[in-house]
Amino acid sequence: MTPLAQTAQAIEEYAPFLQDGDLLEVLQDLADQVVALVPDCVGLSLACYAEGVTFTMVATTAEIAALDAVQYLDTGPCVTSAEEGRVVESRAGDPLDEERWGSFVRASAALGIGSTLTLPVIVEDRPTGTVKLYARSARAFDGRHEQIARVFSAWAPGATTNADLAFTTRGSALRAPADLGNSLQVQIAAGLLAAEGHVTPEQARERIRDAALRSGLTEGQFAAALVKLFSADAG
Question: How distant, in Å, are the alpha carbons of 60, 81, 87, 105 from that of 92?
Fold first, then answer.
């Protein structure tokens, strides 16, 4: 697994505020340890739940970041884990998951994700974030929850505690390269989201903008993922 380009950029911006040494090396080591435990794991992300806001600090692939963003549009296991402070696992084909997290389940299926595992990050008895893992097969994480939790237990709390320090700076940097608000892809995605969610196109575009920022994607990248998801549903 390799970092998303926006993740590398965010790490560079966070560096002055964090005390984890070379953060990119730390994240790569964590990813390597997880893959050693779960060879089927194809991505991970670390989200911070601070002051009522959940945003993704780390995503290893654009597909995984898109799945994070879909949860911020609606809901999903990562939001549930952060709010309730418990381990949450989801599997393809589980009717209960479909009922609770319909958009996320459909997006996972469209991207070939068979299961996810979300671990809460607890600081002083309070959930402050989540570690999210994605795998291709439906039972990739069975019997490995405790081992995976140990991989992240010593590092994740400090990372999520400090992650919000540069959030405003990061948001400005992600928007600076180009204004994608008028791109055809964003307009199409906003129209589709507005029709499904019974909101105005302006509200849909704002939701896309917010979810993309939280997940570390550009609006154009997330809009493309949404169009793909809607197309899969229509098929």
Answer: 21, 18, 17, 7
